[in-house]
Amino acid sequence: MVKITIDGRPIEVTESTTILQAAKLLNISIPTLCHHPKLTPFGGCRLCIVEVKGMPKPVTACTTTVSNGMEVTTYSPYLEELRKTVLELILSDHPNDCMVCEQAGSCKLQDLAYDYGIRENRYEGERRIYPNRDGNPFIERDLEKCILCGRCVKVCDEVQGVEAIDFGYRGFRSKICTNYEEDLECEFCGQCVSVCPTGALTGKQWKKKGRKGGQVEVETTCPYCGTGCNITAHVKENEILKITSKEQTWNEGWLCVKGRFGYRFVQSPERLKRPLIKRNGKFEEASWDEALDHVARRLSEIKEKHGADSIGGLSSARCTNEENYAFQKLIRAGIGTNNVDHCARL
Amino acid sequence: MTNAISEIEGMEVIFIIGSNTKETHPVIANRMIKAYRKGAKIIVADPRLIPMVKFADMHLRIRPGSDIALVNGMARVIVDEGLLNKEFIREKTEGFEAWKASLEPFTPEYVERLTGVPREDVARAARIYGSSRRGGIFYTMGITQHTCGTDNVTALANLVSLTGNIGRPSTGINPLRGQNNVQGASDAACLPNVYPGYQKVDDPEVQKKFELAWGRPLSPAVGMTSTIMMNAATDGKIKALYIMGENPVITDPNMHHTVKALESLDFLVVQDIFLTDTARLAEVVLPAACSFEKNGTFTNTERKVQRVRKAVNPPGEAKDDLWILSEISRRLGYEMEAEPEKVFDEYSKLWPALSGMSYLRIDRHGLNWPCPSPEHPGTPYLYKDGFPKGKVPFISVAYQLPAEVCDDQYPFVLTTGRNLFQYHSGSMTRRVEQIEAHAGEPYVEINPSDSENLGIRNGDTITVRSRRGEISIKARVTLRVSEGTVFIPMHYREAAANVITNDAFDPHVKIPELKVCAVNIIPSAVSAV
Questions:
Q1: pLDDT tens-digit readout, A16-47
Q2: What is the spatial distance between Cα B518 and Cα B413, in angstroms, rounded to a whole number?
Q3: What CATH number is attached to the domain comprising B446?
Q4: DSSP run (H or E) holding B127
């Protein structure tokens, strides 16, 4: 354990702790852009710079580990001026089109520009202009909004193990590249979308579906495989606009392509909307009373004629516990047979 | 799973057999990758070059259906090299000596011949797993969907008993459930032999308990499994079926047989969110709400009961399943509760493992069963304090051939499964336009040397034929499958793998052998031009 002070407040932490982590323990917030708690530190954006007594220049809090007796200052007019300059430089090469950006309201860069009151920019100059021409159906990549924080590169490698993207070129021409700069070809888990701090990576599905305002967030469980990831459905006017997952869930906010992008079946025009009864080989719409009476009558007839064991029920691994409980109870107690099963074997 | 998913990152050795984890359980694969980054060794046993192999120390490319030979071969190495956990075997198991004798035939030569895995690799894998006391085994349908599925699982359980790799954090045996609530549907007893919580229907005491709770006399006779029901329908013994949220026409083996069975019924009612291929055969179709349109709980593969919450209203007049069930039940003269939370409370009172749970307690973080009292924190990993039935028996299992083996007429092995983008019968994912745009076309994976021999090019439409039927499908020439093996994902109704698959099943639990059948590949006339 080592003892340090941050802004004059003492704390004792383990040796491998970074200044940023130690500050968090003291509830001192240091501005960051490229840092993500689930990814390895990068030190790319230089916003988290702090002063350490005895060191000639400010250091990045996310990559510097503590050492005994360290005295750290996180806020000073000098540091704030440097941070503002860093932001101005980032914004000098950014479209600044927040009025039409999907991420407005949930953009870390926008929040920081707001915090530092940046409207005029001292560093206006050349901007990187990239055409958008990615044919994949899931992820919108707007490289002009990319601030090269590298979170997407890290999550794709460290968490997903796919390495579909990486930094390419040098200096002003640096950009996040796919293999041979072709269309994005990957698992489309969208982990990169979830960690992107700006509007550079968004879901094509929720384009123009509305921004943060007016949405209700519903915490629920993914309907696909048995992993049971916790998901958040963003809902507006009875429509699911997008699915996300929060960082503090047990699945750490990670999802797969089905969980993140596979929800539009809910609004499919092919959904069944009314009960159907087949007459002379053709389905006809029926009222609920008609359909339910029909089912009950047919089941009763067959039970009377052939016995309860001539009836069987197949329940669903897609349905809830409550529904499955009720289903087998209906078959066992309501009809009187143990002929009940579900698709566990398939 | 005996472990919690979060415990995976603490494992020292991860042995994946018959699970394409990165495509079928991607977020569990993320945890495995996390363990890998911390230095865990990963062994993958699979006939295909699945994505998880990228992170594996070893890929044991076994022949489909040879799992018992591999696992028994590994066990023999562990015994011979003294890597076994003597203390665990002495205190927690029984029948070791007889079982040990049963390993005798599984010599390195014999195992190599049956599995196709070099003997040195079998030995090395055995040493890696056998030397660890913090190892986890992971399997899915690649182990269970065989006529010897139960024996496959038993062989793995023996391996666990041999090393004592169970009952501790990050140490255990973990079947990964393939569907969101397959664990919960089993727990809630949509099974023919048990009441909720795996309480046996043919135990008179148990029967009495449920008769009292449900206020009705109950049948003491064990019912039929789904595979048996289909046969019974064809034979006229089952006259009516009520199917809720399942699509057996696509998911069951031997599709022609399934369709015939459903057509022989006097009455079929299907309750679903779409007019599936199964629903088309019904007399009555009842429109249901999907999981974004109702309240309730799901139980995931690690036994965690989690909330499902209503986000939107169902379309048109569609209703949630609980309402539909209670309305039918009422019409049959039996009143049932339709409010999810009340149903949960009724259910949890009947099974001690859930009796400490309530919606209030589950709320945001869920709870892993067993959770027997309102103060109990839930149980992330099982068997901390020993096993429910006392000592664990070693049970000998012999190698057996699949129900259908290759011959001159059907020289290829077909194995089936899922891909990353689609899900099960496809009734949900195939209606997501983005997924369809990316992965909407059926295909058969075939090894380049096989395709070259047959004069098939990548993208050619070819015919895959078995004794039960044939389909036309595009060839995907890839090294993912070995020579002599082809793979078809199960999701695509227009080229349904289950037209061809074998409906032979495991005698104990009636799981069909979807992972192995013999087929022939016929290049189409068009592609020969």
A1: 999 999 999 999 999 999 999 999 999 999 99
A2: 5
A3: 2.40.40.20
A4: helix B119-131
> Is the pLDDT score of B210 beyond 90?
yes
Chain-chain contact of A326 with B337 (C-beta, under 8 angstroms)? yes
> Do B169 and B299 fall into the same domain?
no
Are B42 and B16 in contact by the 8 Å Cβ rule? The answer is yes
Q: What would the DSSP string read from start to end of A242-279?
A: EEE--TTSTTTT---HHHHH--GGGG-TTS--S-EEEE
Domain that holds residue B472: 412-528
Mean pLDDT value across residues B515-519: 95
pLDDT band at B525; cut points 50, 70, 90: low
Whether residue A313 lies within 8 A of chain B, CB to CB, comes out as yes
* DSSP letters for B347-368: HHHT-GGGTT--HHHHTTT-EE
> Would you say A199 and A102 are in contact if contact means Cβ atoms under 8 Å apart?
yes
Range(s) for CATH 3.10.20.740 in chain A? 2-75
Q: Which residues of B fall within a CB distance of 8 Å from A331?
A: 242
Q: Do B424 and B508 share a structural domain?
A: yes
Q: Is the pLDDT assigned to residue B527 strictly greater than 50?
A: no
From chain B, the residues in CB contact with A313 under 8 A are 190, 241-244
Residues in chain B: 529
CB proximity A205 to B under 8 Å:
yes
Asked if residue B136 and residue B110 are part of one domain, the reply reads: yes
CATH label, A2-75, candidates 3.30.70.120, 3.40.190.10, 2.60.120.260, 3.10.20.740: 3.10.20.740
- CA distance from start to end of chain A: 53
Residues B86-123: pLDDT tens digits? 999 999 999 999 999 999 999 999 999 999 999 999 99
The answer to whether residues B490 and B448 belong to one domain is yes
- Domain assignment of residue B145, yes or no: yes
Over residues B342-353, the mean pLDDT reads: 97
Contact B293 A220 (CB under 8 A): no
- In whole angstroms, what is the distance from residue A22 CA to residue A25 CA? 5
Distance, in Å, from the CA atom of A170 to the CA atom of A316, rounded to the nearest integer, reads 54
Average pLDDT of chain A to the nearest whole number: 95
- Quick check: B421 and A291 CB within 8 A? no
Interchain CB contact of A293 with B (< 8 Å): yes
Domain membership flag for residue B38? yes
Q: Which residues of A touch B305 (CB under 8 A)?
A: 321
Q: Do B435 and A298 touch (CB under 8 A)?
A: no
Task: Report the C-alpha gap between B86 and A94 in whole angstroms.
Answer: 65
Q: Which of residues 181-200 of A touch B (CB under 8 A)?
A: 187-189
Burial class (CB in 10 A: 0-12, 13-18, 19+), A181: exposed
A291 CB neighbours in chain B (<8 A) are: 284, 286
Q: B126 with B32, same domain?
A: yes
Nearest CB to B238: which of A138, A310, A321? Answer: A310
B158 and B65 housed in the same domain: yes
CB-based burial label for B494 (10 Å; 0-12, 13-18, 19+): exposed
Query: Mind telling me how many Å the CA of B232 is from chain A's nearest CA?
Result: 9
- Mean pLDDT value across chain B: 96
Tell me the two tokens of residue B214.
């449900």
Is B417 within a domain?
yes
Give domain A213-270's CATH superfamily.
ADC-like domains (2.20.25.90)
The partner residue sitting opposite B214, judged by closest CB among A188, A333, A341, is A333
Could you report the per-residue pLDDT of A187-234, keeping only the tens digit for each? 999 999 999 999 999 999 999 888 877 899 999 999 999 999 999 999
User: What are the φ and ψ backbone dihedral angles of B397, each rounded to 5 degrees?
Assistant: -130, 135
Per-residue model confidence (pLDDT) at position B27 = 98
Tell me where in chain A the CATH 2.20.25.90 domain(s) lie.
213-270
